[in-house]
């Protein structure tokens, strides 16, 4: 009898599990070391609900819906959260101080060698923190929990050096375009970048096309790269930079050819936050239909009560585990991949 191909076996099958165990042991060690890192820095580990009335307001992230039935009749729709961000900020407004979480999150319509619909997010918040504080702390974390040199997805990565690069500088270097000077002018951005504007393509669409085609493939390869100071329209939950309101205090971290983390100096103004929510909701409904969930009024109430000035970062823990294990496929660091 022919031996079944491993891909046809269930993920719990001894042969398939044995093949993943080295990477899974690296993941377990990574989780333990991550918790030690934050405990040593006086962070408190928290747990927040996974099923929530409002999963987030990102225009392009699709959510999973579920339904809660009350014991004495009736019920309500809930959504599996796409990030613990809103809940953790509520705790910050309540005075929780430095907090972190290893949370399961869900994003529908995702799947690849580095994406999965259900995954783990490492998220932490530092009251009083700045983007520089976050970058310094993230560098310290990666050096504490990963090998100094590693190989993932065919890329050798050296953690001895981290690059810090603004979005404006990256676009000038790799796309030949002044991304801030051409803001909202898709024709000018296309001309500077030497590309043809596609039918119906607006400035934001072209920004992300150039980011994906020109910028991201050139950064975060031999060493990790922080891509900082994003155009304000691409940072709905971040504070505008007081030194240049055209940009927001946002960064993304790239390593091993993957986006690893997304971070903000958090927006604390409830009026501006509500206005940004309204814009994002209108755009999401225009693109994908609606209505869906109500605005998270409890979150806006927390901002009104007073969110301390803080910085927060969300890191894909499964991708971090891929780096730790030196594996090219996210399923290899998941105990029971779908």
Question: What's the gist of this structure?
Answer:
The protein is an alpha+beta fold and 338 residues long. It has helices at residues 14-40, 85-93, 131-145, 167-174, 186-193, 203-215, 270-288, 297-306, 317-325, and strands at 44-45, 51-52, 64-69, 75-80, 99-111, 116-127, 149-152, 155-158, 163-166, 225-231, 240-241, 244-255, 258-265, 310-316. The protein contains 9 helices and 14 strands.
Description:
The protein has 338 residues and is an alpha+beta fold. The chain is 35% helix and 26% strand. The chain contains nine helices and 14 strands. The strands form three sheets. Strands 1, 5, 6, 9, 10, 11, 12, 13 and 14 form a nine-stranded mixed beta sheet that branches. The protein has a three-stranded antiparallel beta sheet with strand order 2-4-3, with no helix packed on it. A hairpin with a 5-residue loop joins strand 3 (64-69) and strand 4 (75-80). Helix 1 crosses helix 9 (317-325). The longest helix has 27 residues, at 14-40. The model has no long low-confidence stretch (mean pLDDT 94).
């Amino acid at each position: 009898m022919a031996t079944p191909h491993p891909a046809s076996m269930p993920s719990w099958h001894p042969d398939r599990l044995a093949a993943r165990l080295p990477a899974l042991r690296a993941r377990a060690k990574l989780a333990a070391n991550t918790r030690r890192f934050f405990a040593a820095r006086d962070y408190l580990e928290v747990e927040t609900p996974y099923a929530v009335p409002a999963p987030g307001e990102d225009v392009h992230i699709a959510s999973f819906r579920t339904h809660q039935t009350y014991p004495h009749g009736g019920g309500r729709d809930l959504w599996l959260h796409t990030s613990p961000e809103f809940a953790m900020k509520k705790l910050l407004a309540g005075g929780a101080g430095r907090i972190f979480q290893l949370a399961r999150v869900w994003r529908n319509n995702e799947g690849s060698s580095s994406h999965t619909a259900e995954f783990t997010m490492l998220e932490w918040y530092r009251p009083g923190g700045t983007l520089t504080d976050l970058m310094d702390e993230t560098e310290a974390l990666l050096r504490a929990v990963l090998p100094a040199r590693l190989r993932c997805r065919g890329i050798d990565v050296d953690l001895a050096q981290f690059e810090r690069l603004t979005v404006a500088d990256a676009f000038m270097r790799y796309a030949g375009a002044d991304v801030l000077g051409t803001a909202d002018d898709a024709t000018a951005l296309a001309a500077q970048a030497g590309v043809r504007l596609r039918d119906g393509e607006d400035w934001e669409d072209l920004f992300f096309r150039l980011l994906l085609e020109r910028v991201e493939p050139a950064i975060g390869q031999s060493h990790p790269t922080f891509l900082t100071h994003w155009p304000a329209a691409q940072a709905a939950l971040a504070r505008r930079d007081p030194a240049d309101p055209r940009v927001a205090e946002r960064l993304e971290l790239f390593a091993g050819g993957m986006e690893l983390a997304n971070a903000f100096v958090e927006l604390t103004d409830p009026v501006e936050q509500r206005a940004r929510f309204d814009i994002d909701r209108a755009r999401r409904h225009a693109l994908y239909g609606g209505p869906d969930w109500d605005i998270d009024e409890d979150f806006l109430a927390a901002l009104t009560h007073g969110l301390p000035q803080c910085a927060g970062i969300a890191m894909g823990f499964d991708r971090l585990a891929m780096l730790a294990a030196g594996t090219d496929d996210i399923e290899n660091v998941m105990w029971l991949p779908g």
